[in-house]
Amino acid sequence: MGTGFRLGSELLAAMIVGPLLGLGFDRLAGTSPWGLVGGIFLGFAAGVLNVSRAMKETAARDEAETKN
């Protein structure tokens, strides 16, 4: 349960931070809505990469525990 909550919150955080950074970029550069669109895609990609990395670490740790 703890691992699932951690993975879900990592993905959610990336999906929130990416668009917020995109909106900030839009306000600074006046490129609306392209910063938001880019932020959504980059946030999603960052979230998926974080979840993938965390799953690999969890799988490696579980495998090491079962061998011992």
Write the layout of secondary structure elements.
Elements: H1 2-29, H2 34-67
What's a concise summary of this model?
The protein has 68 residues and is mainly alpha-helical. It contains 2 helices and no strands. The chain is 91% helix and 0% strand.
Describe this structure in words.
By secondary structure, this protein is mostly helical. It has one domain. Helices cover 91% and strands 0% of the residues. It has helices at 2-29, 34-67. The chain starts with a helix and ends with a helix. The mean pLDDT is 93.
Any key phrases for this structure?
rod-shaped
Helix percentage: over 70%
Query: Number of DSSP strands?
Result: 0
Radius of gyration: 16 Å
Provide the number of structural domains: 1
Mean pLDDT: 93
Spatial shape:
rod-shaped
Order of helices and strands: HH
Structural class: mainly alpha
How much strand? under 5%
* Low-pLDDT regions: none
User: Gap between N and C termini, in Å?
Assistant: 23 Å
